[in-house]
Amino acid sequence: MQFLKFMLATVFGIFLFCVLAVLFLVGVASVADSAADKGTTIEENSWLRLNLNVPIAEMGEENPFEELGLPIGEDQEKLGVTEILAALKAAKTDDQIKGLYINVAMPQTGAAVLYEIRNAIIDFKESKKPVYAYSEYYTEGAYFLASVADSIWVNPAGGIEFNGLSVEKTYLKTMFEKIGVQPEIFKVGDFKSAVEPFFRTDMSEEDRLQTATYLNSLYNLYLQEIATSRKIAVDSLRTYANKMLVQNVGDAVKYGLVSDTLYADQVHAAMRRVTNQTDKQKIKLTGIKNYLKSSLAQKQTKTKKDKIAVIVAEGNIVTGKGNDESIGSDKFAEEIRKARKDENIKAIVLRINSPGGSALASDVMWREVMLAKKEKPVIASMSNVAASGGYYMAMACDTIVAQPNTITGSIGVFGVLFNAQNLLNDKLGLTFDRVNTGDYAAIGMPTKAISDAERQVIQRGVEDIYKDFTSKAAQGRRMNVDSLRKVASGRVWTGADAQRIGLVDVLGGLDRAISIAAQSANLQEGEYSIKWLPRQKKFLDKLLETTQNDIRTTQLKAELGVLYPYYQLLKNVSSYEGVQARLPFELVIK
Protein backbone atom coordinates (compact mmCIF):
# COMPACT_ATOMS: atom_id res chain seq x y z
CA MET A 1 0.00 0.00 0.00
CA GLN A 2 2.85 2.33 0.93
CA PHE A 3 4.51 1.50 -2.41
CA LEU A 4 1.31 2.40 -4.27
CA LYS A 5 1.19 5.79 -2.52
CA PHE A 6 4.78 6.55 -3.48
CA MET A 7 4.20 5.45 -7.07
CA LEU A 8 1.06 7.61 -7.46
CA ALA A 9 2.85 10.58 -5.89
CA THR A 10 5.75 10.15 -8.32
CA VAL A 11 3.45 9.87 -11.36
CA PHE A 12 1.51 12.96 -10.23
CA GLY A 13 4.78 14.86 -9.72
CA ILE A 14 6.00 14.01 -13.22
CA PHE A 15 2.63 14.99 -14.67
CA LEU A 16 2.64 18.32 -12.81
CA PHE A 17 6.21 19.03 -13.96
CA CYS A 18 5.25 18.37 -17.59
CA VAL A 19 2.22 20.68 -17.35
CA LEU A 20 4.30 23.47 -15.78
CA ALA A 21 7.05 23.00 -18.37
CA VAL A 22 4.56 23.29 -21.23
CA LEU A 23 3.00 26.40 -19.65
CA PHE A 24 6.47 27.91 -19.25
CA LEU A 25 7.35 27.22 -22.88
CA VAL A 26 4.03 28.67 -24.06
CA GLY A 27 4.69 31.79 -22.01
CA VAL A 28 8.26 32.17 -23.27
CA ALA A 29 7.20 31.62 -26.88
CA SER A 30 4.41 34.19 -26.51
CA VAL A 31 6.82 36.78 -25.13
CA ALA A 32 9.30 36.00 -27.89
CA ASP A 33 6.62 36.24 -30.58
CA SER A 34 5.54 39.56 -29.11
CA ALA A 35 9.11 40.84 -29.20
CA ALA A 36 9.52 39.71 -32.78
CA ASP A 37 6.31 41.50 -33.82
CA LYS A 38 7.74 44.82 -32.61
CA GLY A 39 10.56 44.58 -35.12
CA THR A 40 14.25 45.28 -34.68
CA THR A 41 16.18 48.51 -35.08
CA ILE A 42 19.36 48.16 -37.11
CA GLU A 43 22.17 50.36 -35.87
CA GLU A 44 24.10 52.68 -38.12
CA ASN A 45 27.24 51.25 -39.77
CA SER A 46 25.98 47.66 -39.48
CA TRP A 47 27.14 44.74 -41.60
CA LEU A 48 24.72 42.10 -42.86
CA ARG A 49 26.23 38.73 -41.95
CA LEU A 50 25.54 35.86 -44.31
CA ASN A 51 26.37 32.69 -42.38
CA LEU A 52 25.75 29.74 -44.70
CA ASN A 53 27.27 27.00 -42.54
CA VAL A 54 23.78 25.81 -41.58
CA PRO A 55 21.12 23.75 -43.35
CA ILE A 56 19.52 25.83 -46.11
CA ALA A 57 15.95 24.87 -46.95
CA GLU A 58 13.49 26.56 -49.30
CA MET A 59 11.75 28.10 -46.30
CA GLY A 60 13.40 28.75 -42.94
CA GLU A 61 12.16 27.93 -39.46
CA GLU A 62 11.43 30.51 -36.80
CA ASN A 63 13.05 30.24 -33.38
CA PRO A 64 11.20 32.55 -30.96
CA PHE A 65 13.64 31.68 -28.15
CA GLU A 66 16.42 33.45 -30.05
CA GLU A 67 14.95 36.81 -29.03
CA LEU A 68 15.37 35.91 -25.36
CA GLY A 69 18.89 34.57 -25.77
CA LEU A 70 17.85 31.06 -24.75
CA PRO A 71 19.87 28.16 -26.24
CA ILE A 72 16.73 26.26 -27.27
CA GLY A 73 16.24 24.93 -30.79
CA GLU A 74 19.58 26.23 -32.07
CA ASP A 75 20.57 22.85 -33.49
CA GLN A 76 17.29 22.66 -35.43
CA GLU A 77 17.46 26.13 -36.98
CA LYS A 78 17.42 26.38 -40.75
CA LEU A 79 17.91 29.31 -43.09
CA GLY A 80 15.42 29.67 -45.91
CA VAL A 81 16.40 30.61 -49.46
CA THR A 82 13.44 32.98 -49.42
CA GLU A 83 14.82 34.65 -46.28
CA ILE A 84 18.30 35.10 -47.74
CA LEU A 85 17.01 36.62 -50.98
CA ALA A 86 14.65 38.98 -49.12
CA ALA A 87 17.39 40.16 -46.75
CA LEU A 88 19.86 40.86 -49.55
CA LYS A 89 17.24 42.77 -51.51
CA ALA A 90 16.30 44.94 -48.53
CA ALA A 91 19.91 45.53 -47.42
CA LYS A 92 20.87 46.78 -50.87
CA THR A 93 18.97 50.05 -50.30
CA ASP A 94 19.26 50.21 -46.51
CA ASP A 95 21.54 53.09 -45.46
CA GLN A 96 22.12 51.43 -42.08
CA ILE A 97 23.81 48.48 -43.78
CA LYS A 98 27.35 49.41 -44.84
CA GLY A 99 28.46 46.09 -46.25
CA LEU A 100 28.00 42.33 -46.56
CA TYR A 101 30.11 39.83 -44.61
CA ILE A 102 30.00 36.27 -45.99
CA ASN A 103 31.02 33.40 -43.76
CA VAL A 104 30.82 30.08 -45.59
CA ALA A 105 32.92 26.92 -45.33
CA MET A 106 30.54 24.00 -45.94
CA PRO A 107 27.16 25.18 -47.25
CA GLN A 108 24.44 22.59 -46.71
CA THR A 109 22.50 22.97 -49.94
CA GLY A 110 22.70 22.22 -53.65
CA ALA A 111 24.37 23.93 -56.58
CA ALA A 112 21.29 25.72 -57.92
CA VAL A 113 20.51 27.38 -54.58
CA LEU A 114 24.14 28.50 -54.25
CA TYR A 115 23.89 29.98 -57.74
CA GLU A 116 20.68 31.78 -56.81
CA ILE A 117 22.23 33.26 -53.66
CA ARG A 118 25.35 34.16 -55.63
CA ASN A 119 23.32 36.11 -58.17
CA ALA A 120 21.51 37.91 -55.34
CA ILE A 121 24.91 38.98 -53.94
CA ILE A 122 25.91 40.26 -57.39
CA ASP A 123 22.72 42.33 -57.39
CA PHE A 124 23.57 43.60 -53.88
CA LYS A 125 26.99 44.73 -55.16
CA GLU A 126 25.27 47.25 -57.44
CA SER A 127 24.86 49.33 -54.29
CA LYS A 128 28.68 49.77 -54.29
CA LYS A 129 28.77 48.52 -50.70
CA PRO A 130 31.77 46.28 -49.90
CA VAL A 131 31.34 42.51 -49.91
CA TYR A 132 33.89 40.56 -47.87
CA ALA A 133 34.19 36.78 -47.57
CA TYR A 134 36.19 35.03 -44.85
CA SER A 135 36.52 31.41 -43.79
CA GLU A 136 39.01 29.05 -42.25
CA TYR A 137 38.30 26.61 -45.08
CA TYR A 138 36.45 26.70 -48.41
CA THR A 139 34.89 23.62 -49.96
CA GLU A 140 34.24 23.68 -53.70
CA GLY A 141 30.66 24.89 -53.18
CA ALA A 142 31.69 27.44 -50.56
CA TYR A 143 34.31 28.93 -52.86
CA PHE A 144 31.81 29.13 -55.73
CA LEU A 145 29.69 31.45 -53.62
CA ALA A 146 32.56 33.36 -51.96
CA SER A 147 34.29 34.02 -55.29
CA VAL A 148 31.84 36.82 -56.02
CA ALA A 149 33.09 38.90 -53.06
CA ASP A 150 35.26 42.00 -53.51
CA SER A 151 37.82 40.50 -51.13
CA ILE A 152 38.16 36.79 -50.33
CA TRP A 153 40.22 35.95 -47.27
CA VAL A 154 41.17 32.60 -45.78
CA ASN A 155 42.84 31.70 -42.50
CA PRO A 156 46.65 31.30 -42.91
CA ALA A 157 46.42 27.77 -41.48
CA GLY A 158 43.25 26.96 -43.39
CA GLY A 159 42.60 25.47 -46.81
CA ILE A 160 40.66 25.60 -50.05
CA GLU A 161 39.29 22.74 -52.13
CA PHE A 162 39.81 23.29 -55.85
CA ASN A 163 40.21 19.97 -57.63
CA GLY A 164 37.04 19.47 -59.69
CA LEU A 165 33.70 17.78 -59.10
CA SER A 166 33.00 14.10 -58.51
CA VAL A 167 29.82 12.03 -58.31
CA GLU A 168 29.87 8.79 -56.36
CA LYS A 169 27.03 6.25 -56.35
CA THR A 170 26.35 3.45 -53.89
CA TYR A 171 25.52 -0.06 -55.17
CA LEU A 172 23.66 -2.62 -53.07
CA LYS A 173 23.74 -5.76 -55.25
CA THR A 174 26.44 -7.63 -53.32
CA MET A 175 24.87 -6.76 -49.98
CA PHE A 176 21.51 -8.16 -51.12
CA GLU A 177 23.24 -11.33 -52.29
CA LYS A 178 24.92 -11.76 -48.92
CA ILE A 179 21.69 -11.41 -46.94
CA GLY A 180 19.66 -13.52 -49.37
CA VAL A 181 17.34 -10.90 -50.90
CA GLN A 182 16.55 -10.89 -54.61
CA PRO A 183 15.34 -7.53 -56.05
CA GLU A 184 12.81 -7.79 -58.86
CA ILE A 185 13.19 -4.78 -61.19
CA PHE A 186 10.58 -3.17 -63.42
CA LYS A 187 11.43 -0.01 -65.34
CA VAL A 188 10.99 1.95 -68.54
CA GLY A 189 13.83 3.92 -70.07
CA ASP A 190 17.48 3.13 -70.74
CA PHE A 191 18.56 6.00 -68.48
CA LYS A 192 16.23 5.23 -65.57
CA SER A 193 19.11 4.06 -63.43
CA ALA A 194 17.48 4.45 -60.02
CA VAL A 195 17.22 0.67 -59.84
CA GLU A 196 20.76 -0.08 -61.02
CA PRO A 197 22.17 -0.16 -57.47
CA PHE A 198 19.91 -3.16 -56.79
CA PHE A 199 21.27 -5.39 -59.57
CA ARG A 200 24.64 -3.89 -60.58
CA THR A 201 27.96 -3.18 -58.89
CA ASP A 202 28.90 -0.29 -61.17
CA MET A 203 27.43 2.23 -63.61
CA SER A 204 25.83 1.17 -66.87
CA GLU A 205 27.15 2.86 -70.01
CA GLU A 206 23.91 4.85 -70.26
CA ASP A 207 24.18 6.08 -66.69
CA ARG A 208 27.86 6.92 -67.12
CA LEU A 209 26.99 8.96 -70.22
CA GLN A 210 24.22 10.98 -68.56
CA THR A 211 26.28 11.48 -65.40
CA ALA A 212 29.30 12.73 -67.34
CA THR A 213 27.08 15.03 -69.41
CA TYR A 214 25.33 16.78 -66.54
CA LEU A 215 28.43 16.83 -64.30
CA ASN A 216 30.50 18.54 -66.98
CA SER A 217 27.66 20.97 -67.62
CA LEU A 218 27.65 21.86 -63.90
CA TYR A 219 31.43 22.18 -63.84
CA ASN A 220 31.58 24.40 -66.92
CA LEU A 221 29.13 26.83 -65.33
CA TYR A 222 31.12 26.67 -62.09
CA LEU A 223 34.36 27.63 -63.84
CA GLN A 224 32.76 30.29 -66.04
CA GLU A 225 31.22 32.09 -63.08
CA ILE A 226 34.45 32.00 -61.05
CA ALA A 227 36.44 33.14 -64.09
CA THR A 228 34.18 36.17 -64.51
CA SER A 229 34.32 37.13 -60.82
CA ARG A 230 38.07 36.59 -60.33
CA LYS A 231 39.11 37.70 -63.82
CA ILE A 232 40.97 34.46 -64.46
CA ALA A 233 40.72 32.53 -67.74
CA VAL A 234 38.57 29.39 -67.66
CA ASP A 235 41.40 27.32 -69.13
CA SER A 236 43.72 28.50 -66.35
CA LEU A 237 41.18 27.50 -63.68
CA ARG A 238 40.77 24.12 -65.30
CA THR A 239 44.54 23.62 -65.28
CA TYR A 240 44.76 24.59 -61.60
CA ALA A 241 42.19 21.93 -60.75
CA ASN A 242 43.40 19.18 -63.10
CA LYS A 243 47.02 19.47 -61.96
CA MET A 244 46.13 20.04 -58.30
CA LEU A 245 48.16 23.25 -58.25
CA VAL A 246 46.19 24.69 -55.32
CA GLN A 247 47.32 22.52 -52.44
CA ASN A 248 47.46 25.17 -49.71
CA VAL A 249 46.33 28.72 -49.01
CA GLY A 250 49.62 30.12 -50.30
CA ASP A 251 48.89 28.53 -53.68
CA ALA A 252 45.37 29.99 -53.57
CA VAL A 253 46.84 33.50 -53.16
CA LYS A 254 49.52 32.84 -55.82
CA TYR A 255 46.98 31.84 -58.45
CA GLY A 256 44.48 34.58 -57.56
CA LEU A 257 41.72 32.46 -56.11
CA VAL A 258 41.78 34.39 -52.83
CA SER A 259 42.87 37.93 -52.03
CA ASP A 260 45.04 37.17 -49.01
CA THR A 261 45.49 35.03 -45.92
CA LEU A 262 44.26 36.78 -42.78
CA TYR A 263 43.23 35.92 -39.26
CA ALA A 264 39.75 36.86 -38.04
CA ASP A 265 40.98 39.88 -36.10
CA GLN A 266 42.66 41.23 -39.25
CA VAL A 267 39.43 40.81 -41.19
CA HIS A 268 37.59 42.70 -38.45
CA ALA A 269 40.16 45.47 -38.67
CA ALA A 270 39.49 45.81 -42.40
CA MET A 271 35.75 46.02 -41.70
CA ARG A 272 36.34 48.71 -39.06
CA ARG A 273 38.23 50.82 -41.57
CA VAL A 274 35.16 50.88 -43.80
CA THR A 275 32.98 52.23 -40.97
CA ASN A 276 35.72 54.45 -39.46
CA GLN A 277 35.69 52.59 -36.16
CA THR A 278 38.52 52.26 -33.65
CA ASP A 279 40.00 48.95 -32.57
CA LYS A 280 38.08 49.14 -29.31
CA GLN A 281 34.69 49.48 -30.99
CA LYS A 282 32.62 46.36 -31.63
CA ILE A 283 31.72 45.48 -35.20
CA LYS A 284 27.96 45.62 -35.66
CA LEU A 285 26.93 42.37 -37.33
CA THR A 286 23.31 41.43 -37.92
CA GLY A 287 22.19 38.00 -39.10
CA ILE A 288 19.61 37.23 -41.78
CA LYS A 289 16.75 36.37 -39.43
CA ASN A 290 17.39 39.33 -37.15
CA TYR A 291 17.69 41.73 -40.08
CA LEU A 292 14.37 40.60 -41.56
CA LYS A 293 12.69 41.83 -38.38
CA SER A 294 13.99 45.36 -39.05
CA SER A 295 11.58 48.11 -39.99
CA LEU A 296 12.88 48.54 -43.55
CA ALA A 297 12.78 44.83 -44.35
CA GLN A 298 9.24 44.58 -42.95
CA LYS A 299 8.19 47.64 -44.93
CA GLN A 300 9.36 46.04 -48.16
CA THR A 301 7.16 43.00 -47.49
CA LYS A 302 4.01 44.97 -46.69
CA THR A 303 0.86 43.02 -47.51
CA LYS A 304 -1.32 44.15 -50.40
CA LYS A 305 -4.72 42.91 -51.54
CA ASP A 306 -3.49 41.38 -54.81
CA LYS A 307 -1.17 38.47 -54.12
CA ILE A 308 1.01 35.92 -55.85
CA ALA A 309 1.02 32.59 -54.01
CA VAL A 310 4.38 30.82 -53.80
CA ILE A 311 3.73 27.20 -52.88
CA VAL A 312 6.93 25.54 -51.71
CA ALA A 313 7.26 21.80 -52.40
CA GLU A 314 10.42 20.28 -50.95
CA GLY A 315 11.37 16.66 -50.34
CA ASN A 316 10.36 13.20 -51.55
CA ILE A 317 6.87 12.88 -53.03
CA VAL A 318 4.56 10.62 -51.03
CA THR A 319 0.85 9.94 -50.86
CA GLY A 320 -1.21 11.46 -48.05
CA LYS A 321 -0.30 14.42 -45.86
CA GLY A 322 3.46 13.86 -45.75
CA ASN A 323 5.58 15.68 -43.18
CA ASP A 324 8.06 18.56 -42.91
CA GLU A 325 10.61 16.65 -45.00
CA SER A 326 8.32 15.32 -47.74
CA ILE A 327 5.69 16.48 -50.22
CA GLY A 328 2.38 14.89 -49.32
CA SER A 329 0.03 14.82 -52.31
CA ASP A 330 -3.11 15.49 -50.23
CA LYS A 331 -1.55 18.46 -48.48
CA PHE A 332 -0.12 20.13 -51.58
CA ALA A 333 -3.13 19.42 -53.75
CA GLU A 334 -5.17 21.21 -51.08
CA GLU A 335 -2.76 24.18 -51.08
CA ILE A 336 -3.03 24.52 -54.86
CA ARG A 337 -6.82 24.21 -54.63
CA LYS A 338 -7.06 26.93 -51.96
CA ALA A 339 -4.84 29.25 -54.02
CA ARG A 340 -7.00 28.62 -57.08
CA LYS A 341 -10.20 29.51 -55.22
CA ASP A 342 -8.76 32.59 -53.46
CA GLU A 343 -9.86 35.62 -55.49
CA ASN A 344 -7.07 37.76 -54.05
CA ILE A 345 -4.42 35.40 -55.41
CA LYS A 346 -3.86 36.40 -59.03
CA ALA A 347 -1.12 33.92 -59.92
CA ILE A 348 0.62 30.84 -58.49
CA VAL A 349 4.31 29.94 -58.40
CA LEU A 350 5.26 26.36 -57.58
CA ARG A 351 8.72 26.32 -56.03
CA ILE A 352 9.92 22.73 -56.47
CA ASN A 353 12.92 21.07 -54.86
CA SER A 354 12.29 17.35 -55.22
CA PRO A 355 13.92 14.22 -56.70
CA GLY A 356 10.44 12.72 -57.13
CA GLY A 357 8.78 9.74 -55.51
CA SER A 358 5.35 8.18 -55.85
CA ALA A 359 3.99 8.34 -59.41
CA LEU A 360 0.42 8.25 -58.09
CA ALA A 361 1.02 11.15 -55.70
CA SER A 362 2.67 13.14 -58.50
CA ASP A 363 -0.36 12.63 -60.70
CA VAL A 364 -2.74 13.81 -57.94
CA MET A 365 -0.87 17.12 -57.74
CA TRP A 366 -0.60 17.37 -61.54
CA ARG A 367 -4.40 17.32 -61.72
CA GLU A 368 -4.68 20.28 -59.35
CA VAL A 369 -2.16 22.22 -61.44
CA MET A 370 -4.26 21.55 -64.54
CA LEU A 371 -7.38 22.88 -62.80
CA ALA A 372 -5.56 25.94 -61.44
CA LYS A 373 -4.04 27.02 -64.77
CA LYS A 374 -7.55 27.28 -66.25
CA GLU A 375 -8.26 30.15 -63.84
CA LYS A 376 -4.92 31.93 -63.28
CA PRO A 377 -1.27 31.76 -64.37
CA VAL A 378 0.77 28.93 -62.81
CA ILE A 379 4.56 29.17 -63.04
CA ALA A 380 7.11 26.54 -61.97
CA SER A 381 10.35 27.59 -60.28
CA MET A 382 12.87 24.75 -60.08
CA SER A 383 15.42 24.80 -57.25
CA ASN A 384 18.34 22.36 -56.83
CA VAL A 385 16.38 19.37 -58.12
CA ALA A 386 13.05 19.03 -59.90
CA ALA A 387 13.35 15.61 -61.48
CA SER A 388 11.04 12.71 -62.31
CA GLY A 389 8.08 13.23 -59.96
CA GLY A 390 9.40 16.75 -59.37
CA TYR A 391 9.20 17.35 -63.12
CA TYR A 392 5.74 15.76 -63.13
CA MET A 393 4.60 18.56 -60.81
CA ALA A 394 6.05 21.23 -63.10
CA MET A 395 5.18 19.98 -66.57
CA ALA A 396 1.60 21.29 -66.62
CA CYS A 397 2.60 24.84 -65.61
CA ASP A 398 2.32 27.70 -68.10
CA THR A 399 6.05 28.47 -67.81
CA ILE A 400 8.91 26.46 -66.31
CA VAL A 401 11.84 28.42 -64.86
CA ALA A 402 15.06 26.67 -63.81
CA GLN A 403 18.61 27.59 -62.96
CA PRO A 404 21.22 26.48 -65.52
CA ASN A 405 22.60 24.07 -62.89
CA THR A 406 19.26 22.70 -61.72
CA ILE A 407 18.99 18.90 -62.01
CA THR A 408 15.78 18.07 -63.87
CA GLY A 409 14.18 15.76 -66.42
CA SER A 410 14.47 12.07 -65.48
CA ILE A 411 11.10 11.45 -67.12
CA GLY A 412 10.70 7.75 -66.40
CA VAL A 413 9.27 5.30 -63.89
CA PHE A 414 10.29 2.14 -62.09
CA GLY A 415 9.03 -0.41 -59.62
CA VAL A 416 10.92 -2.71 -57.24
CA LEU A 417 9.82 -5.82 -55.40
CA PHE A 418 12.05 -7.72 -53.00
CA ASN A 419 12.02 -11.51 -52.85
CA ALA A 420 13.26 -12.32 -49.34
CA GLN A 421 12.50 -16.04 -49.53
CA ASN A 422 16.15 -17.09 -49.27
CA LEU A 423 16.74 -14.78 -46.29
CA LEU A 424 13.65 -15.99 -44.48
CA ASN A 425 13.94 -19.72 -45.31
CA ASP A 426 17.67 -20.50 -45.34
CA LYS A 427 19.08 -17.88 -42.99
CA LEU A 428 16.27 -17.32 -40.49
CA GLY A 429 14.53 -20.70 -40.66
CA LEU A 430 11.12 -19.25 -41.48
CA THR A 431 8.83 -21.04 -43.96
CA PHE A 432 5.49 -19.97 -45.39
CA ASP A 433 2.49 -21.57 -47.03
CA ARG A 434 -0.68 -20.00 -48.39
CA VAL A 435 -4.09 -20.55 -49.93
CA ASN A 436 -5.06 -18.31 -52.88
CA THR A 437 -8.40 -17.61 -54.52
CA GLY A 438 -6.72 -16.92 -57.86
CA ASP A 439 -3.42 -17.16 -59.73
CA TYR A 440 -2.44 -13.57 -58.88
CA ALA A 441 -3.81 -13.27 -55.34
CA ALA A 442 -0.34 -13.28 -53.74
CA ILE A 443 1.38 -11.06 -56.31
CA GLY A 444 4.12 -8.96 -54.77
CA MET A 445 4.48 -11.00 -51.57
CA PRO A 446 8.13 -10.85 -50.40
CA THR A 447 7.99 -14.42 -49.08
CA LYS A 448 7.98 -16.08 -52.50
CA ALA A 449 9.61 -15.88 -55.91
CA ILE A 450 7.72 -13.94 -58.57
CA SER A 451 6.37 -15.90 -61.56
CA ASP A 452 6.85 -14.92 -65.20
CA ALA A 453 3.13 -14.18 -65.49
CA GLU A 454 3.23 -11.89 -62.46
CA ARG A 455 6.33 -10.18 -63.81
CA GLN A 456 4.53 -9.42 -67.08
CA VAL A 457 1.55 -7.92 -65.23
CA ILE A 458 3.74 -5.57 -63.17
CA GLN A 459 5.93 -4.59 -66.14
CA ARG A 460 2.80 -3.76 -68.15
CA GLY A 461 1.59 -1.53 -65.32
CA VAL A 462 4.93 0.32 -65.21
CA GLU A 463 4.86 0.82 -68.98
CA ASP A 464 1.29 2.16 -68.82
CA ILE A 465 2.33 4.74 -66.22
CA TYR A 466 5.31 5.75 -68.38
CA LYS A 467 3.02 6.24 -71.40
CA ASP A 468 0.70 8.37 -69.30
CA PHE A 469 3.63 10.38 -67.86
CA THR A 470 5.17 11.11 -71.26
CA SER A 471 1.82 11.86 -72.90
CA LYS A 472 0.98 14.44 -70.24
CA ALA A 473 4.50 15.87 -70.42
CA ALA A 474 4.19 16.24 -74.19
CA GLN A 475 0.81 17.95 -73.72
CA GLY A 476 2.21 20.37 -71.17
CA ARG A 477 5.33 21.15 -73.19
CA ARG A 478 3.35 21.38 -76.44
CA MET A 479 5.57 18.75 -78.04
CA ASN A 480 4.98 15.70 -80.17
CA VAL A 481 4.90 12.59 -77.94
CA ASP A 482 7.63 10.85 -79.95
CA SER A 483 9.87 13.91 -79.70
CA LEU A 484 9.26 14.11 -75.95
CA ARG A 485 10.13 10.45 -75.45
CA LYS A 486 13.47 10.94 -77.21
CA VAL A 487 14.57 13.25 -74.37
CA ALA A 488 12.74 11.25 -71.69
CA SER A 489 13.67 7.59 -71.12
CA GLY A 490 14.62 8.51 -67.55
CA ARG A 491 17.51 10.74 -68.65
CA VAL A 492 18.72 13.49 -66.31
CA TRP A 493 19.50 16.98 -67.64
CA THR A 494 20.83 20.23 -66.25
CA GLY A 495 18.53 23.25 -66.50
CA ALA A 496 20.63 24.71 -69.33
CA ASP A 497 20.41 21.51 -71.39
CA ALA A 498 16.73 21.11 -70.50
CA GLN A 499 16.00 24.55 -71.94
CA ARG A 500 17.82 23.64 -75.13
CA ILE A 501 15.67 20.52 -75.67
CA GLY A 502 12.38 22.16 -74.65
CA LEU A 503 11.82 20.76 -71.15
CA VAL A 504 12.40 24.20 -69.57
CA ASP A 505 11.30 27.63 -70.85
CA VAL A 506 13.37 30.22 -68.98
CA LEU A 507 16.65 30.22 -67.04
CA GLY A 508 16.48 32.06 -63.74
CA GLY A 509 15.62 31.89 -60.07
CA LEU A 510 12.58 32.39 -57.89
CA ASP A 511 12.50 36.16 -58.47
CA ARG A 512 12.36 35.56 -62.23
CA ALA A 513 9.47 33.12 -61.80
CA ILE A 514 7.57 35.60 -59.62
CA SER A 515 8.18 38.35 -62.17
CA ILE A 516 6.78 36.14 -64.97
CA ALA A 517 3.76 35.30 -62.81
CA ALA A 518 3.13 39.00 -62.18
CA GLN A 519 3.40 39.85 -65.87
CA SER A 520 1.07 37.00 -66.78
CA ALA A 521 -1.50 38.31 -64.27
CA ASN A 522 -1.04 41.94 -65.46
CA LEU A 523 0.33 43.02 -62.09
CA GLN A 524 2.83 45.87 -61.88
CA GLU A 525 5.76 45.79 -59.44
CA GLY A 526 4.67 47.24 -56.10
CA GLU A 527 1.02 46.34 -56.70
CA TYR A 528 1.16 42.88 -55.15
CA SER A 529 2.57 40.97 -52.20
CA ILE A 530 3.77 37.39 -51.86
CA LYS A 531 1.80 34.79 -49.93
CA TRP A 532 4.02 31.89 -48.89
CA LEU A 533 2.37 28.47 -48.67
CA PRO A 534 2.05 26.15 -46.89
CA ARG A 535 2.03 28.24 -43.73
CA GLN A 536 4.93 27.44 -41.44
CA LYS A 537 4.13 26.02 -38.03
CA LYS A 538 5.05 28.05 -34.98
CA PHE A 539 8.28 26.96 -33.35
CA LEU A 540 6.42 25.94 -30.18
CA ASP A 541 4.10 23.69 -32.17
CA LYS A 542 7.11 21.97 -33.68
CA LEU A 543 8.74 21.69 -30.30
CA LEU A 544 5.67 20.04 -28.81
CA GLU A 545 5.48 17.68 -31.80
CA THR A 546 9.03 16.40 -31.22
CA THR A 547 8.79 12.63 -31.09
CA GLN A 548 10.92 9.72 -30.03
CA ASN A 549 11.88 9.31 -33.70
CA ASP A 550 13.60 12.72 -33.65
CA ILE A 551 15.66 11.68 -30.63
CA ARG A 552 16.44 8.34 -32.27
CA THR A 553 17.61 10.10 -35.45
CA THR A 554 19.99 12.28 -33.46
CA GLN A 555 21.38 9.21 -31.70
CA LEU A 556 21.80 7.32 -34.98
CA LYS A 557 23.70 10.22 -36.55
CA ALA A 558 26.02 10.35 -33.56
CA GLU A 559 26.59 6.59 -33.49
CA LEU A 560 26.84 5.89 -37.24
CA GLY A 561 28.81 9.00 -38.21
CA VAL A 562 29.87 8.79 -41.87
CA LEU A 563 27.80 5.61 -42.26
CA TYR A 564 24.53 7.43 -41.55
CA PRO A 565 23.90 8.37 -45.24
CA TYR A 566 23.97 4.65 -46.14
CA TYR A 567 21.45 3.88 -43.41
CA GLN A 568 19.30 6.71 -44.74
CA LEU A 569 19.57 5.31 -48.27
CA LEU A 570 18.31 1.90 -47.14
CA LYS A 571 15.53 3.60 -45.17
CA ASN A 572 14.44 5.50 -48.27
CA VAL A 573 14.38 2.28 -50.29
CA SER A 574 12.09 0.68 -47.70
CA SER A 575 9.65 3.59 -48.12
CA TYR A 576 9.07 2.97 -51.84
CA GLU A 577 5.36 2.30 -52.30
CA GLY A 578 3.88 1.59 -55.71
CA VAL A 579 5.49 2.64 -59.00
CA GLN A 580 8.09 5.38 -58.53
CA ALA A 581 8.88 8.47 -60.60
CA ARG A 582 12.15 9.21 -58.87
CA LEU A 583 15.60 10.63 -59.66
CA PRO A 584 17.89 7.72 -60.60
CA PHE A 585 20.39 8.32 -57.81
CA GLU A 586 21.08 9.98 -54.48
CA LEU A 587 23.09 12.94 -55.77
CA VAL A 588 26.21 13.92 -53.82
CA ILE A 589 28.68 16.15 -55.66
CA LYS A 590 32.10 16.57 -54.05
Q: What's this entry about, in short?
A:
The chain has 590 residues and is α/β, with parallel strands linked by helices. Among the domains are: 39-162 and 246-298, 2-enoyl-CoA Hydratase, Chain A, domain 1; 304-413 and 479-536 and 550-582, 2-enoyl-CoA Hydratase, Chain A, domain 1, CATH 3.90.226.10. The strands form six sheets. Strands 10, 13, 15, 16, 17, 19, 20 and 21 form an eight-stranded mixed sheet that branches. A six-stranded parallel sheet has the order 8-6-5-4-1-9, sandwiched between helices. Strands 2-3 form a two-stranded parallel ribbon.
Features:
single chain; 590 residues; 8-stranded mixed β-sheet
What does the model show?
With 590 residues, this protein is α/β, with parallel strands linked by helices. Among the domains are: 39-162 and 246-298, 2-enoyl-CoA Hydratase, Chain A, domain 1, CATH 3.90.226; 304-413 and 479-536 and 550-582, 2-enoyl-CoA Hydratase, Chain A, domain 1 (Alpha-Beta Complex), CATH 3.90.226. Helix content is 44%, strand content 19%. It has 23 helices and 22 strands. Strands 10, 13, 15, 16, 17, 19, 20 and 21 form an 8-stranded mixed β-sheet that branches. The protein has a 6-stranded parallel β-sheet with strand order 8-6-5-4-1-9, with helices on both faces. It has a two-stranded parallel sheet with strand order 2-3. Strand 4 (97-103), helix 3 and strand 5 form a beta-alpha-beta unit. The longest helix is centred in the N-terminal third of the chain and has 36 residues, at 2-37. It is globular. The termini are far apart. Residues 28-37, 67-76 and 545-549 have low confidence and may be disordered.
